[in-house]
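Question thread 4412

I'm putting together a teaching handout and wanted feedback from people who do this every day. The idea is simple: show students a protein as raw sequence, then show them the structure tokens that encode its fold, then repeat with a second protein so they can compare. Below is the first pair exactly as I plan to print it.
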Amino acid sequence: MTHYNLLKTHCGNGHPYSGENLYGSPKSGKRQCRACQSNFMRSQRAAGLPQNDPRHGTDSAYTNWGCRCEKCKRGSFEARRVRTLRYKYGISEEQQNELHARFSAFGCDICGSKRNPRIDHCHKTGVVRGILCAGCNTGLGHLRDSKEAIEKAIGYLNRGKLETVNKTEGRY
């Protein structure tokens, strides 16, 4: 706990940190107001939620990572997924669902596989191009989304045999 927090004499709701109203967590050393904690637990019981984790049932994905019940784990995962889609790729949940439906029906646009879908986007512009399998998406990334590099890779594959190279020319 930071020095600033040790200087606080009251909780955020104005209850004093003293005597019977002060609880120090043995694990984190964090001070808690017993009155606020008691009110929180009472509201949890009234809502029929588990009382063992004060983060249970909150709306924020940042605060309910610690709760291990199935409802919170799923809610946390969904909230992070939607947030990632919106901020990283700029697409809505509906657009992502459409991409996954197309992937489920037709598979990867490159190889046709229906396993491990990944959202493919241009690293220069950030525009989502579609949805590919993990292998094809990774392959494009390693080739840096360069058409020239892909054409060279195709030419390399079409050669089909190892060329003997003279080491004295400086190439191996």
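The second pair follows. I'd like the answer to focus on this one:
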Amino acid sequence: MTACPDIRALVAIPCFNERANILRTLDDLLSHLPEGEFLVVDDGSADDTAAAVRAARLPRVTVVRHPVNLGYGCAIQTAAKYALVGGYDAVVFFDGDGQHSGSDVPIALALIADGRADVAVASRFLGSCDYDIPLSRRAGWRSSPTAGLTSPSPPAFSAAATTTSLCRDARG
């Protein structure tokens, strides 16, 4: 990847019914990682997410599709296995719904490439956030086990709010 020439990284995008957002997400990632390698893991979407990505014929974008919805965890496992078998040095898990910025990926990979981190987690709540967070998700924060602790804002590292980058040595 241009941003981190010392490591070969895969940006894995697990998604379910993200046809409306996935191409915009990929365009954002491609603009920040012009030499990047990408894997879209469609977890049995009913909205033709995989077909939309394939039809776009984007460079260095591979699509894997589960025949049925197996859940987010299985989509992550599929991506991790793909990265291990493919010999990647690092894998970035990036949501396909457009809530994250592709500009964060080179920063996380630089931390890994220069040995400052084995795992890097980015959160949209640690800086400015221009993503319109759905009311249903905001309501869920109020009922979460961490609601009402020291901050009125949602947890900074909720699984739904993060982009995670791992190096090969972090697989433990």
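Top answer:
Good format. For the second protein you could add a caption like this: The CA atoms of residues 89 and 168 lie 5 Å apart. The domain at 9-132+160-171 is CATH 3.90.550.10 (Spore Coat Polysaccharide Biosynthesis Protein SpsA; Chain A).
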